[in-house]
Amino acid sequence: MTDKLSQSADKVLDHYTLFRQPEYAAMFEKKKTEFEYGHSDEEVARVSEWTKSEDYKAKNFAREAVVINPTKACQPIGAMFAAQGFEGTLPFVHGSQGCVAYYRTHLTRHFKEPNSAVSSSMTEDAAVFGGLNNMIDGLANAYALYKPKMIAVMTTCMAEVIGDDLQGFIANAKNKDSVPADFPVPYAHTPAFVGSHIVGYDNMIKGILTNFWGTSENFDTPKTEQINLIPGFDGFAVGNNRELKRIAGEFGVKLQILSDVSDNFDTPMDGEYRMYDGGTTIEETKEALHAKATISMQEYNTTQTLQFCKEKGQDVAKFNYPMGVTGTDELLLKLAELSGKPVPASLKLERGRLVDAIADSHTHMHGKRFAVYGDPDFCLGMTRFLLELGAEPVHILSTSGSKKWEKQVKKLLDGSPFGASGAAHGGKDLWHLRSLIFTDKVDYIIGNSYGKYLERDTKVPLIRLTYPIFDRHHHHRYPTWGYQGALNVLVRILDRIFEDIDANTNIVGQTDYSFDLIR
Ligand code: SF4
């Protein structure tokens, strides 16, 4: 270590500069040689090369006992996200505190917003004797301190492993006056060791609707002209939910979003801290029972909830993250069918402009090969849009993807000449995708921030179009749904393609004959 340090109070360096300074370089080298005792650089390089081979891919795909970088998170984070779309609602996670810190930071890192949630902070004694006392004290504290209009309860692994009964615990807590007897405390069991965040989302929405709509089937409830819409777990919810409301306004349709997080995850900086902002109100949630229909934007996020809506006598319709021209057409036609109103001229104009933009850029999209990963619905919507653009989705991968989902992807691929080289990989993870990309190269990867490690490894450029996006800012404020949203997605893909072409043609006197001003 050198005597003189590179950093002082007057000269503070960012970490990526600081750790390249001589004293840190020497420290890292010492750590490596004296403490890590790793394999030689040659051996690391040899194994690294082997992991890119067909031989390794076969072993990788035979793997059963371990999952490496799955494209999913655990149930409670989805439940928390769903709860935060209701007005004044405080998510209350029954279980361990560390889990809740993880959900909060995950959402905060994506939306760049503070994220409020509490936990019952179960520790060893609660794990042995049950968490009833944690629930009683926790609900009382949360109600008194944070003044919510509703507390939505979900669980972590710990509470589920010991089998805590939320319904009984909440009733007990109300008997002990933790919260008033008529205060809404919907709940959902969200065991994190099965399903994923999209199942947790479904469980929580159903839990909240059950709280206000009742458990028994009642097909004969009087119906209004209103249409409910459930967005599902969506990292672009701020832009998308606002776009959906704009579309409904153009249409003149009374559209009620159930779980609208768009304001809660986009609070203004005007001197007032908003612990809760916007969201579906309790009155709107109650009234939504009488809607004539409920639409889900993401089938795999709402399996149980849509069944529940059906049992209440509502028509239901489901989409798979509808993006692009055809996806938006189908959504608008469904709104027209359900409302009896024609698709407005203003939206038809937007459609024409999108088609024009696609035609303008089709030469750059045509034949480009893509890997797509993420939630099942996102993969379906993205694959469909790529096919529409003349691009070729090759590897489509979702850890939460089922056999049914694989068939849906295959049907999409079979319906287009651009789908000939594509295949769906349900239940697989990003380490599988790495093998796929090394053995069957693509031009671009579409996914989330976790794909940056794949990008570094495979040298295939990444386009961030789904949750979570931690290392880029503000994309979630722009819609990806509707014709305007499709245009945003198209621009994001094209920008990456053009950056790539520029980077590959910028050597003066060697490759710059293609470093064109006009693309
Ligand atoms: S998987 Fe279980 S332990 Fe891990 S964060 Fe989720 S609830 Fe907590």
TrEMBL record:
Q: Which residues form the Nitrogenase molybdenum-iron protein beta chain N-terminal domain?
A: 6-60
Single GO molecular function: iron-sulfur cluster binding
- One GO cellular component term: molybdenum-iron nitrogenase complex
Q: Does the keyword ATP-binding apply?
A: yes
Give UniProt keywords alphabetically: ATP-binding, Iron, Iron-sulfur, Metal-binding, Nitrogen fixation, Nucleotide-binding, Oxidoreductase
Among Pfam families, the record links this protein to: DUF3364 (PF11844), Oxidored_nitro (PF00148)
Record bears the keyword Iron: yes
Signal peptide positions (record)? none
Kindly give the InterPro entries that the UniProt entry links to this protein.
Answer: ChlB/BchB/BchZ (IPR050152), Nase/OxRdtase_comp1 (IPR000510), Nase_comp1_CS (IPR000318), Nase_Mo-Fe_CF_bsu (IPR005976), Nase_Mo-Fe_CF_bsu_N (IPR024564)
**Cofactor list:** [8Fe-7S] cluster
Q: Residue limits of the Nitrogenase/oxidoreductase component domain?
A: 74-496
Q: What is its EC number?
A: 1.18.6.1
Q: Which domain of life is it from?
A: Bacteria
According to the record, cofactor stoichiometry and binding are noted as: Binds 1 [8Fe-7S] cluster per heterodimer.
Q: Which family does it belong to?
A: Belongs to the NifD/NifK/NifE/NifN family.
**Reported function:** This molybdenum-iron protein is part of the nitrogenase complex that catalyzes the key enzymatic reactions in nitrogen fixation.
Protein name (database record) = Nitrogenase molybdenum-iron protein beta chain
| UniProt lineage | Bacteria, Pseudomonadati, Pseudomonadota, Alphaproteobacteria, Rhodospirillales
- Gene (name only): nifK
